[in-house]
């Protein structure tokens, strides 16, 4: 039964560890290859299917029993001091491990994986490290994609490159889509701190936007220095006025965006601890002091008022006498009941 490529590579790793252990001293990469050929009558070649160079294979593929410094390899000191540990099985973790990404999957799967931008960063980090071969990275990408996202790989051949996979996935899952670096940077210029948004959250949101523009290759962000300068400028312009007032005296002392963000967060705490200004309007109050009157005077006035009210109640009220006009004078009225003159029906 023919062994698979992974099984052959595992055997190759065990042989390399054994060579280093038996040597008991520091060996160069060339010495390891030479001893391997003399002892096992074959060349080291299976590691090339996973790693881009022999040093990466010894450092990340052989295990924790050896130490790689420059172009030399030696036995780990913990293995030398503890002979029992050398007999334990070596755990190999040669291939990069990417977090699962589920795309637009619904239900529980949607919350299991990571955001697309985080997943893409993991893949780009593995590519930029230059340790693993592209077929290995492509294989790990296929394993990390789950659910709806995995269906996007249907139709890709075995010779698919990492860049083509990322370009295809960007069309569906990238927040910026096909936007250019200049367009993303323009959006960053218009960003402002929300009314209830914390300083740290606004700074993170602005930093992410600028890094997206840098990843797209905008000319205004050629390096980290330019990115930090833009972040410092746009962060200050987007802060709320109340926080600016508390941070203005420290602004000139901040040479980096990190220092400015820390100063703004300190100003934010001062704003939260400051009492809310309220406008107090004092109404004009006119106080009239009552004159103190003697008790006998108030009793006398009350008695007189009662007598006047009693006299008015006992006196009959008569209606006014209306007289008809006679020339320049009014004539006496005539009663409608008895027909006599000088009184009316009510007084009859």
How does this structure look, described?
By secondary structure, the chain is mainly alpha-helical. It has 15 helices and five strands. It has helices spanning 5-23, 29-40, 54-61, 77-81, 83-86, 116-129, 134-144, 147-150, 162-173, 181-189, 199-215, 224-238, 241-251, 257-273, 295-314, and strands at 27-28, 66-69, 72-75, 325-326, 329-330. The strands form two sheets. Strands 1-3-2 form a three-stranded antiparallel β-sheet. Strands 4-5 form a two-stranded antiparallel ribbon. Strand 4 and strand 5 form a beta hairpin. Helix 11 (199-215) packs antiparallel against helix 12 and helix 13 (241-251) packs across helix 14. The longest helix has 20 residues, at 295-314. The model is unreliable at 83-92 and 283-290 (pLDDT under 50).
Radius of gyration: 48 Å
Oligomer: single chain
Number of helices: 15
Secondary structure class reads: mainly alpha
Distance between the termini: 146 Å
How would you state the average pLDDT, rounded? 78
The low-confidence parts are 83-92, 283-290
Q: Approximately how much beta-strand content do the residues carry?
A: under 5%
Shape: elongated
> Quick one: how many beta strands?
5
What's the SSE pattern?
HEHHEEHHHHHHHHHHHHEE
Strand order of the largest sheet: 1-3-2
Helix content bin: 40-55%
Largest sheet: 3 strands, antiparallel
Quick synopsis:
By secondary structure, this protein is mainly α. The protein has helices at residues 5-23, 29-40, 54-61, 77-81, 83-86, 116-129, 134-144, 147-150, 162-173, 181-189, 199-215, 224-238, 241-251, 257-273, 295-314; strands spanning 27-28, 66-69, 72-75, 325-326, 329-330.
